[in-house]
Every structure is written in C-alpha cells, then in structure tokens.
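Please describe what follows:
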Amino acid sequence: MIARNRLLRAKDCLSPSWLRCGSTSAPTTSAPQRRRSPNRGLRQGYAALNEGARPLRSPALPPEPTPFTRIGGADAVDALVERFYAEMDARPEARGIRALHGANLAATKFVLKRYLGEWLGGPPLYSSERGHPRLRMRHMRFPIGEAERDAWLVCMRAALAATVADATAREGVFQAMASLADHMRNRPPGGA
C-alpha cells in the first residue's frame, strides 16, 4: 500500500517522480505499469508551475533604429541619390564611371533609390520588384577596378556629407558602402 501511495503522489510531481516528491528511493510496485510518454510528467509539471504565473520575460527594449531611419528615411535616400549623380556629373575624376551610365539617369536613379532604401533597412521595395540584388552579377558587364571604385566612393562621400546630418550614421553608412564598392571590383589591382 505504501508503494501505491508513493506512486499516486508521484504522478503529480515532475519526472523523475521519486526525486521530486521527497522520497529517497525509487517507488516499487508489483502491478504492471502502463507505458507513458517520456515527456508526460514534464508537460504536466510545467503546466502546474506556469499556472497563474507571469511569463519570465525581460521588459522589451526599443529596437535600434536602422541606418534608413537614422539618416532621415526615404526623403534622405532620394536626396542622397540625386546628390550622388550630381557629384558624378560635376567631378572630373568621375568622368569614367559617368560614361558607363546612359545620358538619361531617371531609371538608374529610381533603381538606386529603391536599392539603397532597402539596403539601409527601409521597406523592401527593390527586392519585391526586382528580386535578389545580385549586384556583382549585374555590374559584371562594367569594368570596375580600383580607379572606378575610388571615383564612386569620392562621389558617395560628398553626397553623404551634403545630405546626412548625423556624423556617426554618415560614417557608418560610408564604411559599409566602401566595403560593398570594393566587393564590386571585377578587374585586378593595377587596372589591367
């Protein structure tokens, strides 16, 4: 009878039951036991523990603002792209990369605004319209070496300086763009 009482008390406790209910030895019984799911006791125990309890969560921290938000959102991206191409038109060192573009930049600006907005953490307008960026593949038809990368970065640095007031955000965006621009090179160093 004692073994049966231990067994009845044990089924209300967490598995292994004989350790959780204060017993020092495993329950013994001569009656055949019904086969149970190994997680049954665990599920019942968690349900009992959580009944009426508040979830154990830390207070939600506000999310970090994205670079898109930090630089000023879609309006700032639009101004950045417009200024970038104005710099490309004005700078003698950018003539080579400007010549890679058509005379009418409207379509190019539209695509770059969508891409940069998404890349900076804004709405996924580029990928929803055009799919995965595949930037390197899309730029493979253009010769991009160190000189082209550097000219592109000179124009982008000037555009960022003119349009983004937050210096920390501006520098963070530029560093990320510099890494991306270096990845776009498809000509060996030295301009061969």
